[in-house]
User: What shape does this take?
Amino acid sequence: MRAIICIQARMTSSRLPGKVLMPLAHAPLLERMIERVQAARVGAKIVVITSRDRADDPIASLCRRLGIECFRGHRTDLLDRHYQAAKHYEATIVAKIPSDCPLIDPSVIENVFRAFYEHPCDYASNLHPASYPDGNDVEVFTFDALEQAWNEATQDFEREHTTPFLWERPDRFTIVNRAWESGFQYSMTHRWTIDYPEDFEFIRTVYDYLWKPERPVFSMNDILVLLSEHPEIEKINATYRGVNWYRNHLDALHTIGSNETRTLQDELT
Assistant: This one.
């Protein structure tokens, strides 16, 4: 079996353009995230998958400097981009981790891979239902399942978000979820992802406190301890807690409820 971890990244984010290369602890944000993914002991090749647009040339340049594989594909059809990357690298197992997770804990990646291997399945994640702090997103699936989704998915959100065709069909695909061992449900209350300027300020502040050259990969528990000691840090991006893409497709999603997302106030006015 050959496994790859796809980190999807692009420069043209609609809410925070260029976020993947914003400076974080003296390096581009994407470099810091790759640093954390590399620390996961899962035996998978890391591939940054970006688009063929010229705007994403800086991402390809960064990958060359870091010695990281870079695959370029469709700008908006992320399902196609993952599929073509998996074909290119002849992968039988594919993991999806978005580039807006620069605080992801390597042990979380290991946990989801372990769940995939220990429980034979088509798709494993820590998202259905989610329990970890938002920004620890890991999905692992077989190439065969990915190919079926690529062949059959027709809705825009299925193509844009890569995996809904799989986890929306538990009657067809074997689905495994890895819940946070702590028993806590922090996915709606702890936001460690990056979509808005306030998110970047939160992440930058966490890195300012915790990142050290001699210990660059701090843990999820380190972050939770920091937030307990400095609750003001969590307030930086509190407006966006629980906000995710599900909110725009609740009428079409069958396995996601309104309790798993939140709508921004400015979207209601």
Summary: The mean pLDDT is 97.
